[in-house]
Specification:
Helix content: over 70%
Number of strands: 0
Number of domains: 1
Largest sheet: none
Radius of gyration: 15 Å
Order of helices and strands: HHHHH
Shape: elongated
Number of helices: 5
């Protein structure tokens, strides 16, 4: 089970890094996809959010492939996913994003759960 969780998290990390890079480089395109207003301000701040997505995607991949265990990085990446899902849901509630952005929020929320399950599996395994 732990092996499959790890593989799923690797895919989550890759998707997070790639989508963050896309958001960073092409914020107007991504803003259009989620039905948001496109201005210089929203493009700038969306690119910043993309940078952090790229960094957290890279962080989880780094933590998974590192020789040294980094449980803290795994935990913080899970928390980032929950924070992102809440932020997108709030954006939808305030009519900043179209309903389709809910798929992004759902992906991030499920990703957070999967990453926490993995965190629990590595923490429980080492405590015994």
């Amino acid at each position: 089970m732990k092996k499959y969780l790890r593989l799923i998290i690797i895919l989550i990390g890759i998707l997070t890094a790639v989508s963050g890079l896309m958001q960073m480089l092409f914020p107007a395109f991504v803003l259009k996809l989620v039905g948001a207003e496109i201005t210089n301000t929203t493009k700038h701040f969306f690119a910043i959010v993309g940078m952090f997505m790229f960094l957290f995607g890279g962080l989880i991949l780094h933590a998974l492939y590192s020789i040294q265990d980094n449980k803290a990085a795994i935990l913080w990446c899970a928390l980032q996913k929950f924070g992102a899902s809440i932020a997108v849901a709030i954006g939808i509630a305030h009519h900043l994003f179209a309903w389709m952005a809910g798929l992004v929020a759902l992906f991030d929320f499920i990703s957070g759960i999967i990453i926490l399950l993995y965190f629990k599996s590595i923490y429980t395994y080492e405590v015994r």
